[in-house]
User: Which sequence fits this backbone?
């Protein structure tokens, strides 16, 4: 019997997790199993799930493992519990959706496999206000990537995202890869790849997994008739620790996939990016606390890019 495992990672986000699980509650349990890996939340998430959603399998962790390791832990937990599934859906807990979208996306995976071969299928993603959230990305060469350090954010995004291509008379659009807000994929692919790289705590873990899938012949397709809301992508605020984690993860995965050239590309990009952002803020930083903090953060990031090994 074909069964789909939906895996969700949580960390101190009970209200949004509750909404997500409520959206999924009507899925038929014979066809879908929901697993939550909780990264040692202290807000009662585990207890609340067990009380309000007893059909959901919860895998509490003793520490915050990050996104990738927690997904791996939940998948392994299902296997250890003897749960059989042939399709895996990775879903962010800060999403809102109609459960029928998951059912349709599951059907779309089978349709895409028949039409296109080895695939990962994703829905279209929107912000809470209904505007498009472009979580897909094009394949760009190192020079184009480096030039993004000198572009405004909107222009850089256009180069990174590209334009997905409609596949004939279907509702599928082909893209190079998409972030793991919601991936519907064959479970054996996840096992074949060994899941997420557990050396990556946060950021770029989905890029790394996507690249490894692409390298063995898999392709990403967007099912345009399936749409979900991703709350986290609309106005996420960053801080210095997150920015440092992002940059370190970038250097690690670039080095992993491109060797020393990748490490150099990451360091040159980050150096240029922070230098370009520092220049126009230096004068304002003398008179404005907000600009001073911004400049201080980019000085730290610049030092990290120049000195990190």
Assistant:
């Amino acid at each position: 019997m074909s069964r789909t495992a939906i895996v969700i990672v949580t960390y101190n986000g009970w209200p949004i997790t509750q909404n997500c699980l409520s959206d999924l509650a009507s899925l038929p349990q014979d066809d879908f199993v929901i697993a939550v890996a909780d990264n040692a939340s202290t807000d009662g998430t585990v207890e609340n799930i067990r009380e309000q959603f007893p059909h959901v399998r919860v895998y509490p962790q003793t520490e915050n493992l990050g996104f990738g390791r927690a997904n791996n832990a939940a998948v392994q937990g299902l296997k250890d519990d003897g749960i059989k599934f042939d399709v895996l859906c990775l879903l962010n807990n800060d999403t809102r959706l109609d459960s029928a979208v998951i059912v349709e996306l599951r059907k779309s995976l089978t349709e895409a496999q028949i039409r296109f071969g080895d695939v990962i299928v994703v829905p279209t993603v929107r912000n809470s206000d209904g505007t498009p959230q472009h979580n897909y990305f094009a394949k760009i060469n190192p020079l184009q990537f480096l030039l993004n350090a000198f572009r405004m954010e909107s222009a850089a995004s256009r180069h990174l995202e590209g334009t997905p291509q409609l596949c004939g008379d279907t509702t599928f659009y082909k893209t190079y890869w998409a972030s793991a807000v919601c991936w519907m994929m064959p479970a054996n692919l996840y096992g074949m790849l060994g899941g997420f790289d557990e050396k990556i705590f946060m950021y770029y873990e989905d890029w790394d997994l996507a690249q490894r899938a692409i390298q063995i012949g898999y392709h990403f397709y967007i099912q345009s008739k399936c749409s979900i809301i991703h709350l986290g992508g609309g106005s996420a605020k960053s801080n210095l620790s997150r920015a440092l984690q992002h940059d370190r993860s970038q250097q690690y995965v670039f080095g992993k996939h491109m060797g020393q050239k990748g490490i150099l590309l990451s360091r040159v990009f980050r150096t240029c990016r922070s230098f370009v952002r520092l220049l126009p803020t230096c004068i304002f930083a003398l008179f404005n606390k907000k600009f001073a903090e911004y400049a201080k953060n980019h000085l730290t990031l610049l030092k990290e890019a120049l000195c990190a090994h």
Remarks:
- The two ends are 50 Å apart (CA to CA).
- The longest helix spans residues 240-258.
- The chain has a mean pLDDT of 92.
- Residues 240-307 form one domain.
